[in-house]
Design brief:
Largest sheet: 2 strands, antiparallel
Radius of gyration: 30 Å
Number of helices: 3
Helix content: 25-40%
Order of helices and strands: HHHEE
Number of strands: 2
Strand content: under 5%
């Protein structure tokens, strides 16, 4: 499939892109090349090819789910302006 200069102008209009008139033919040629490549890739036999979730064969490194800091809740609540039943009291901002 190849695009004409008129196709590129229509696409640019729909996408609200401004394209200089002298660049229209260049874009038509480049976009036609992309569409041709996509057509070629669509014709490849991919039977037996396992879909990939990521292009690199790497594992996600995750840290161990463990508590690494001490609990300072009582200290922070002791210096808070107002607390009640373990909660911080703040001024009402929405009626």
């Amino acid at each position: 499939m190849s695009l004409t200069a008129n196709d590129v102008k229509k696409i640019a209009h729909l996408a609200r892109l401004g394209i200089a008139e002298q660049d229209v033919e260049h874009y038509a040629k480049d976009l036609s090349g992309v569409l041709e490549l996509m057509t070629q890739m669509g014709q490849l036999n991919t039977d037996g090819v396992t879909p990939m979730a990521h292009p690199l064969d790497q594992m996600q490194r995750l840290r161990e789910d463990a508590v690494t800091e001490t609990d300072q809740r009582d200290h922070f609540q002791s210096i808070a302006p107002q607390t009640e039943a373990g909660l911080y009291l703040v001024p009402k901002v929405i009626d």
